[in-house]
Amino acid sequence: MCLSLWRFLSRFKGCVMLKKFFPVGYYYQQEITIYCSLLVVSILYSLTTINRIYDWANTYRLNHRAVVPDYIDICGFSLYGFFIVVIFSVVMIRAHYHYHYVGTKSIYIMKRINHPNELHRRCLAAPLIEILISIVLMFVLNYIYFAIYRAVLPPESINPNQLIFYFL
Q1: What is the number of domains present in the chain?
Q2: How far apart are CA 76 and CA 124, in angstroms?
Q3: Is residue 117 part of a domain?
Q4: What is the pLDDT of residues 101-158, one digit of tens each?
Q5: DSSP 8-45
Q6: In this structure, is residue 47 part of a structural domain?
Q7: Which domain holds residue 101?
Q8: Residue 145 domain-assigned (yes or no)
Q9: Distance CA 100, CA 109 (A)
Q10: Per the domain annotation, does 166 fall within a domain?
């Protein structure tokens, strides 16, 4: 799926501009494909939160004395996939620096460029953008799932003290 998405996006000039965020001569399409795949798997795994919310809603409808746990307990580990994506991006920072010194030895090209921060920009830009996208997406999904939690469960079953934590 990500490979076909990459082929579709590669027709646009924006993907050619991505080369300036990666090391010279680096095969960045493979990194983007792996990143997109990890992101899709993380999103799909986070959807288990919705399943748990609806399970607790059905349990509460059957038994009004059932104690519905806090959102953080229902959410559990479902958003941890995004941390794996962040770890992948941090590892790619090291891989980008390593690429300059091994193989093509493009470190010599970087030393001849007039901009002293060009090496750091090429090694840090793409992974930091990937980390930012992953964290923002994780927070957006967390708030969407919390809104579903609030909408599906009756207000009398929700602990009012947990609302302060999520809206600060």
Answers
A1: 1
A2: 31
A3: yes
A4: 776 666 667 677 777 787 778 788 889 999 999 999 999 999 999 889 888 888 777 7
A5: HHTTSHHHHHGGGGS-TT--HHHHHHHHHHHHHHHHHH
A6: yes
A7: 30-62+70-153
A8: yes
A9: 9
A10: no
